[in-house]
Amino acid sequence: MLKHAITIAAFLLILVPSYSYSKVRGEATHLSIHSEILDEERELFIHLPNTYHLSNAQLHYPVLFLLDGQRNFGHAVGTLDLLTQSNMAQEMIVVAIANTHRSRDFTPTYDENYNEWGKSGGADNFLDFIEKELVPYINEKYRANNFKIISGHSLGGLLSVYALQSRPHLFQAHFAFSPSLWWQEQVIFDDAEAFFSDISKLNNYLYINMGSEGGHMLTSYQRYKELLNTHKRKGFSYNTDLDTTEGHNTTALAGHSLAYQNLYKSLQPSSEVLSGGIPAIKQFYKLQSEMYGADIKPSYRAINSVGYKALSEKDYSTAIAIFQSNVDSYPYKADAYDSLADGFEASGDLQQALDMRALAIQKSVVENVENGAYKTRHANLLNQIQEKNL
What we know:
Layout: H1 2-15, E1 27-35, E2 40-48, E3 61-66, H2 69-85, E4 93-97, H3 102-106, H4 123-141, E5 144-153, H5 155-166, E6 173-177, H6 183-186, H7 192-197, E7 204-210, H8 215-230, E8 236-242, H9 251-266, H10 271-275, H11 277-292, H12 300-312, H13 316-329, H14 334-347, H15 350-367, H16 372-387
Parallel strand pairs: 3-4, 3-5, 5-6, 6-7, 7-8
Antiparallel strand pairs: 1-2, 2-4
Helix pairs in contact: 1-15, 2-9, 12-13, 13-14, 14-15, 15-16
């Protein structure tokens, strides 16, 4: 009877499509909204994560507000998609804002010396647009969890830093690639010392980088880095990178990968928390949710690591229960079924393991992830079962 079931399972597996789609996963939308504050139409490029329509309606996502939207949308979305497939970054809704008057929107003060670039000094107005019009629009239309990131390059990086100092409540994380901190005789530093000396909790993250750039670009970056290193404001974490292999035009391209990964690491539980098991992990994320004012769920990666710890200790029933909880929380995720199969196989329940390995392959096609390893594990387990004449 069991042999018959295995034969049927193997046949059904053959029917699962083996093709995938070689594109950035998820769904991209192009639309415009009218801003009363800016008195103009603003063009948006919006990307929903791959799991947005695969997951249930209870799953909500952080939102990345991306400046210079036309220029940065493709690589920012593609890099994020690659990293999420390896559990190295958090899935996000990406809202890329196309430019109308770039120098106007990204600079905090008016400087007549740069009138040849266009207008300047409209940063507060632009941030009003994001805070009072764009964020409410995104929250109403999409499943956002209130954890917001702003990402900007050059003058956009200046705006990201200015947003941190002037409205720390608006975004919970800030990416600033080659930021133009030199603007108007480094005016950004006028309030920086007092801001980072504040004794109240900041509850925020900053990633800032610089490429092979000299002059006032480099000196202002070095000054800001020194400021960060000499002040330890509570609840605030940051990463800085000076990468001379990248030029000014590519620091956002290289930096997004590091920013995504470092932000994700900053939000993960420590090894000490993980050693406390599921209750400690849930408490950690409960406190995180309260800290950021966002609904932050325990990460797949954290839960899975505890499952494999139990498996290494040969506590098979606990490991299987933990892996099953990830299957329940992420029923669309092929890796969850593959991990559950590891638990069943280690416990000696080879038929259950085979079923989960088959499901991992089926789910991988819908999820559109590479499944060669899943197929190999399924084939090896099937051979093992047949050799035992079960």
